[in-house]
Amino acid sequence: MSDAVLHVTDSEFNEKVILASKNQPVLVDYWAEWCGPCKQIAPLLDKMAIKYAGKLTVVKINIDENSATPQHYGVRGIPTLMIFKDGEVEGTKVGALAESALSSFIDSNM
């Protein structure tokens, strides 16, 4: 896991995602340790965090350790990716994405 990806908890979510997204978009990955597709896209998220450094913040939140936030945002399957912009959800994708699809998702929601 790269240092470019920030790990947050329920208690940090408002500050690190909602408030931070008023300055630049934040991509949130809802994941769990036991989730195969979550592990599959982790290297891509690292790559995107580096590629979009200064333009996008990439954040991961473990749903097993932090259940309030995923419940609040209606996360029903993982991995779920949400882009927050100006404190609101701008876009959502569920499931592992190929690199090109992930880039397109990011670009279309920035």
UniProtKB/TrEMBL annotation:
Q: Which InterPro entries match?
A: Thioredoxin, Thioredoxin-like_sf, Thioredoxin_CS, Thioredoxin_domain
- For whether the record's keyword set contains Disulfide bond, the answer is yes
One GO cellular component, as annotated: cytosol
Q: Which Cys-Cys disulphide bridges does the record give?
A: 35-38
Domain of life per record? Bacteria
Single GO molecular function: protein-disulfide reductase activity
Ranges for domain Thioredoxin come to: 1-110
Q: Name the residues annotated as site: Contributes to redox potential value.
A: 36-37
Q: Where is the active site?
A: 35, 38
Q: Which Pfam families match?
A: Thioredoxin
**Chain positions of site Deprotonates C-terminal active site Cys:** 29
Name its GO BP terms in alphabetical order. cell redox homeostasis
Q: Recite the UniProt keywords alphabetically.
A: Disulfide bond, Electron transport, Redox-active center, Transport
Q: Which family does it belong to?
A: Belongs to the thioredoxin family.
For this entry, the protein name equals: Thioredoxin
Organism of origin is: Crenothrix polyspora
Q: Encoded by which gene?
A: trxA
